[in-house]
Amino acid sequence: MSSAIEKVIVIGGGGNTGPYIVEALQTAGFEVAILSRTSSETIFPEKITVHKTDYDMTSLVKIFQGYDAVVSVVATFSTDQQNIIIDAAVHAGVKRFLPSEYGIDTSLPQLAEYVSFAKGKQDTVAYLKTKEGTQLSWSALCVGAFFDWVLKIGGGLMGWDIPARRATVFDSGDQPYEATNMRQIGRAVAGILKHPEGTKNRYVYVNSFTVTQNQVITAVEKASGDKFEVSKMTTRDLRDEGYRNAEKGNLELGFPQVVTSAIYGHGGLNNFSAHKELANETLGLPKESLEETIAEVLEEMRSRP
Asked: Which of 225, 190, 228 shows the shortest CA–CA distance to 206?
């Protein structure tokens, strides 16, 4: 069986990350389709094939036949649904499966202690490892923070509210963390599938840059010409507040708080460039800079109606 990957189906192509992955795969020359739940009303680009499913084994196997790779971008709270998708991929002869990762380093044993919501991601990789005796291999992509996306969303997410010129710094603000722009994430997925042998059955680590919160504030203030109002909080307090909100049923607030605490260093889950090899060069990813990213983000925000 040839290891070359040509046809790719993306699950969750309509979320925050999916469109960037689909765009990058198409740009890289892959034949791309999207798998969507039958009840979904998401509108996708006209020139892309969309397969509808209720995620039963029979329909999944039928849809996956002929595809070389499955890229999962399902939500964190749906990662436990990936096992049936993996089983269907094995039955259909799929060569590569990318589970829904795209964040902190979920390979680390302390993950469940600091971000219990993400434990399902570890379980999925453990399940994929049981399939290594079949034709199906896997790659788990870790990228750290969604850097430019978070800045554009604002509203206090991960401590940033650029329109209001406010920021929250967690702990000292000097702890390095991994940050990746959205298009770089898409390019990384395409790069993995372009280099199937070098990315087989392993975690793959990429970023746009390693940065600190204080460095970001300095760059934003310089580019905008405005001084930001900065408040302080600890990552431990943020995590505890996040779990309290989750226990009250407010996952929409609690989940991002817990993830933000990990992004900014609580638990040592997001500084993988310090002790693991980045795959940027192997995957042919362009070098990106903090200053250029900030300039692009501010320009886009100025152009909004």
From this structure: 190
Q: Which residues contact 228 (CB under 8 A, 6 or more apart)?
A: 165, 166, 167, 217, 220, 221
Distance between first and last Cα of the chain: 52
Contact 164, 171 (CB under 8 A): no
C-alpha closest to that of 112 among 103, 99, 121, 101: 121
Q: CA 278, 168, 230 angle in degrees (round to 5)?
A: 125
Phi, then psi, of 205 in degrees rounded to 5: -115, 130
Instruction: For strands 166-170 and 160-161, give the pairing.
Output: antiparallel
Model pLDDT for residues 54-112, shown as the tens digit of each residue: 999 999 999 999 999 999 999 877 778 899 999 999 999 999 999 999 999 999 999 99
Please tell me the pTM assigned to this model.
Answer: 0.96
E strand or H helix at 8: strand 7-11
Using alpha carbons, list the distances in angstroms from residue 292 to 209, 213, 288, 295. 12, 16, 7, 5
Phi, psi (5° rounding) for residue 167?
Answer: -150, 150
Q: Do residues 32 and 26 touch, judged by C-beta distance below 8 A?
A: yes
CA distance 119 to 91: 26
Structure confidence by residue, pLDDT tens digits, 132-182: 999 999 999 999 999 999 999 988 899 999 999 999 999 999 999 999 999
